[in-house]
Amino acid sequence: MISSLFICHGGPSIVFEKNEYTTFLKEFGSKMIPKAIVVFTAHWENEITTISSINGIYDMIYDFYGFPKELYALKYPAKGSQEIALKAKSLLTNCGIESHLDEKRGLDHGAWDILYLMYPDAEIPVVQVSVNPFMPMEEQYKIGEALKSLGEEDILVIGSGSTVHNLSTLADVKEPIRWAVEFDDWLVNKVEHKKLDELFSYQKLAPHATLAVPREEHMVPLFIALGSGHKNKPVLLHRSYNFGTLTYLIFEC
Questions:
Q1: Looking at domain 5-252, does it have CATH number 3.40.830.10?
Q2: Any idea what DSSP says for residue 167?
Q3: Phi and psi dihedrals of 212, rounded to 5?
Q4: DSSP 154
Q5: pTM value?
Q6: pLDDT truncated to tens, each residue of the chain (253 aa)?
Q7: How far is it, in rounded angstroms, from Cα 186 to Cα 152?
């Protein structure tokens, strides 16, 4: 049995950073060794859940601009798994959830930056899955629930996104900005006690929700991870901040 994770993936340059968050990711990855990884990334959006289905090495997607040139030369030679992709598709179908397979798309930084830190040898098969930010959070949770049995086979489901994700609010400060902390305080409390009804309505109930989450693609992976997890009380494994409002949270679900 392996627990699902929600991981804030941060910016792509995180792969070159040395701080408490990158140290935690490296150490945690060395202890949790799954059979395969299924990662829902906030940087791949589709109306219908779409699952990468290849057996070879993924192409890299550099879905960002303005970063140091060495970042565009970085490679993470992860291999896919059509077997795991088909398994995930079958589980979704069994729960009445439509899905498609994709044999062309590469890995975006919502997947490769955290995997580069956690599993630098790229030896674990990876299946990348899209998100639809326009679906209600109850439906996102059901997508996760459909994949719950993957954890029983030591297949790690990761929701890769962010909680506070408003790039216009980033600041060159050392301490986190209060409103971002207050939003995360509310969220952490509800997640740890698995208050699903309140979480599903976080936009109305959480303080500063509109400011923290101007668009929901980075929140969706949290609800998928919660749905696929096995813990009655998810555990906050790490919490830190960068640039005032860039949240680094990890939940074990």
A1: yes
A2: G
A3: -70, -35
A4: T
A5: 0.96
A6: 899 999 999 888 899 999 999 999 999 999 999 999 999 999 999 999 999 999 999 999 998 777 878 888 899 999 999 999 999 999 999 999 999 999 999 999 999 999 999 999 999 999 999 999 999 999 999 999 999 999 999 999 999 999 999 888 888 888 999 999 999 999 999 999 999 999 999 999 999 999 999 999 999 999 999 999 999 999 999 999 999 899 999 999 9
A7: 30
Question: In sequence order, what E strands does 62-172 have?
Answer: 99-102, 126-131, 155-161
In angstroms, rounded to a whole number, what is the distance separating the alpha carbons of residues 172 and 244? 7
Kindly list the domain boundaries of the chain, sorted by start residue: 5-252
